[in-house]
Amino acid sequence: MKKLIIYPLIILFAFGGFAKTKVVTSIFPIADIVSNIVKDKADVKYVIPVNANPHTFEPTPEQAKIIAQADVFIGVSKQFDGWIEKFLKKDAKKYYLQRRPANPHIWLSFIWGNQIISNIKLIFMKLDPKNKKFYTANAIKYSRELSEIHKVYFAKFKSLKTKNVIQYHPAWEYLAKDLKLNIIGTIYTGESKRVSIAHLTSILKIGKKRGADALLCRLNTKDKVIDIYERELKLKRVELDPIGDPKSKDRNSYINLLIYNCEKIYQALNQ
């Protein structure tokens, strides 16, 4: 499992003081994990709106101001949200949850989620050692809840007769491994929508040979390529949410986001 990077910068923190330490993350799921561990001991915010693409997002002046006010930044990886660094104040502390360049969608995984919880716990134990028991207790409780939900869905998916899926974007690699799904093809391997006819044809051939029952894509994805795959392979389009939405009823927390995505995939494959 990957280790977090710690950049030892000097800063005075307000843990236990009058002002709360300001923590910023790029996306909602990471902010929600942090909030479940620190509770009311820090002010936690995220800057990328839930309807925005994290890979291509550029902050507004108001969002840049939120970043500039942060005492602590917790990012996914340098490649994913390292751009936030240029908006941070010089004495802000910064941490990354993924050390090496790799698929950054670590929050979309039960197994990685537990590692994220552990890493964030360690961050705040270092920043605020007087409350290390508090952070440890919260992390243990939260991790157990996540693990129990993983067990439930692991058992449900184990009973499925078919587990072959195609993904539109490589956001679901880790979740597929968690649930022992077989990703037999990925349409777009990056943010660019440029892809060769040979690549698309290859996935179609593999799908026809091995069988594919679902195509995993982001909510409200519009692409004629998906229409072709649905028609040619007679598979189901499964619209998933990679970011969540605190204003929604079923995706308003990190754990609910994972449940939502698991249910969508399970319902599509269990038909």
From TrEMBL:
<dbReference type="GO" id="GO:0046872">
    <property type="term" value="F:metal ion binding"/>
</dbReference>
<dbReference type="InterPro" id="IPR050492">
    <property type="entry name" value="Bact_metal-bind_prot9"/>
</dbReference>
<dbReference type="InterPro" id="IPR006129">
    <property type="entry name" value="AdhesinB"/>
</dbReference>
<dbReference type="InterPro" id="IPR006127">
    <property type="entry name" value="ZnuA-like"/>
</dbReference>
<dbReference type="Pfam" id="PF01297">
    <property type="entry name" value="ZnuA"/>
</dbReference>
<dbReference type="GO" id="GO:0030001">
    <property type="term" value="P:metal ion transport"/>
</dbReference>
<dbReference type="GO" id="GO:0007155">
    <property type="term" value="P:cell adhesion"/>
</dbReference>
<protein>
    <submittedName>
        <fullName>Zinc transport system substrate-binding protein</fullName>
    </submittedName>
</protein>
